């Protein structure tokens, strides 16, 4: 039976509607973030090879575009990682990442600050961890932090993203100063940790390296380890560019006061100005939006895990 043009158009429109229903049901509703000022515009961008050295898995790291970007690869032989050439006190740190597509269960892509190499028993850490997914599930973004070796208290918060992180690059940023720690995705604040009395004993305070890795987290990453990595889908490739490393640099082999990377600041903290001390109204709107629509787990709400919640959860 031959279809007339209007019948073909009707069938096409019905197919598109069905396709959109399937996509939305798989990925969940898609929201547009509010308009927010861009902290990434305040700092200069570097090429990857300007800011980073190989951390491990050198054979699985490919510099691209003359070192301005890089590919971090995970296959059956190894994961891979980059580590900043300098250690930093407070600052602003950014990486634009594009994540592996398709079946990525068990894969972990991390962008984080750590000093575990220097302080193995009382290290500090501030984490972005992107957790892979089984079929038809989205990547999960997990944030966490430790201070002075407080690893027995997990301070995780988990989010669904409002975009597909495998299609294009997106900015993942950490602002860390004496006032607060701020996690941002595409300049939208998703989490703020205020430096107050309740959290001061475990607030990260020692110089840290900035690290980017891809590795096998099969034991825990996807639904508590329910779905491990399937290496028939390897290699898993994360692309990285848009580097920003703006902080007080610790001089090598010295415990002296750090030098500052920014000439314009009168403080040892390059992100200590008024614009970095607290959130603007726009940023507060973005933070509330991200947490209301996209956060699905916070340790401060996990009364099954903690019979007594960590003190910062109930501080006013």
UniProtKB/TrEMBL annotation:
Example of a GO cellular component annotation carried by this entry: apoplast
Q: Which GO terms describe its molecular function?
A: hydrolase activity, hydrolyzing O-glycosyl compounds; xyloglucan:xyloglucosyl transferase activity
Q: How is this chain modified after translation? A: Contains at least one intrachain disulfide bond essential for its enzymatic activity.
A Gene Ontology biological process in which this protein takes part is: xyloglucan metabolic process
| Top-level division of the source organism's lineage | Eukaryota
This protein is called Xyloglucan endotransglucosylase/hydrolase
The organism named in the record is Anisodus tanguticus
Q: What class of enzyme is it?
A: transferase
Family recorded in the similarity comment: Belongs to the glycosyl hydrolase 16 family.
Q: Which residues form the signal peptide?
A: 1-26
Cellular localisation? Secreted, Cell wall; Secreted, Extracellular space, Apoplast
- GH16 domain boundaries: 5-240
Keywords, alphabetical: Apoplast, Cell wall, Cell wall biogenesis/degradation, Disulfide bond, Glycosidase, Hydrolase, Secreted, Signal, Transferase
Known EC number: 2.4.1.207
Q: What does this protein do?
A: Catalyzes xyloglucan endohydrolysis (XEH) and/or endotransglycosylation (XET). Cleaves and religates xyloglucan polymers, an essential constituent of the primary cell wall, and thereby participates in cell wall construction of growing tissues.
Q: Which residues form the active site?
A: 125, 129
PROSITE patterns according to UniProt:
GH16_2
């Amino acid at each position: 039976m031959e279809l007339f043009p209007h019948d073909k158009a009707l069938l096409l429109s019905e197919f598109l509607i069905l396709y959109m229903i399937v996509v939305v049901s798989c990925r969940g509703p898609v929201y547009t973030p509010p308009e927010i000022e861009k902290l990434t515009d305040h700092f200069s961008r570097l090429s990857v090879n300007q800011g980073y050295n190989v951390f491990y898995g050198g054979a699985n790291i490919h510099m691209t575009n003359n070192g301005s970007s890089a590919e971090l690869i995970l296959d059956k032989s190894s994961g891979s990682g980059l580590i900043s050439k300098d250690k930093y006190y407070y600052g602003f740190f950014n990486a634009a990442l594009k994540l592996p597509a398709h079946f990525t269960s068990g894969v972990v892509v991390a962008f984080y600050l750590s000093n575990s190499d220097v302080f193995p028993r009382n290290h500090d850490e501030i984490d972005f961890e992107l957790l892979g997914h089984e079929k038809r599930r989205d990547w999960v973004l997990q944030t966490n932090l430790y201070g002075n070796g407080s690893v027995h208290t997990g301070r995780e918060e988990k989010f669904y993203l409002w975009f597909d992180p495998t299609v294009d690059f997106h900015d993942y940023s950490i602002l860390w100063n004496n006032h607060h720690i701020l996690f941002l995705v595409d300049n939208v604040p998703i989490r703020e940790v205020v430096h107050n009395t309740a959290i001061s004993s475990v607030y990260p305070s020692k110089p840290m390296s900035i690290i980017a890795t891809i590795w096998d987290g099969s034991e825990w990453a996807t639904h508590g380890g329910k779905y491990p990595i399937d290496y028939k889908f390897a290699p898993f490739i994360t692309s990285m560019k848009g580097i920003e490393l703006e902080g007080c640099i610790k001089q090598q082999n010295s415990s002296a006061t750090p030098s500052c990377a920014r000439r314009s600041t009168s403080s040892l903290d390059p992100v200590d100005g008024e614009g970095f001390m607290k959130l603007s109204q726009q940023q507060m709107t973005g933070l509330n939006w991200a947490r209301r629509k996209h956060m699905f787990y916070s340790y401060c709400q996990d009364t099954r895990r903690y019979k007594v919640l960590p003190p910062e959860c109930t501080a006013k």
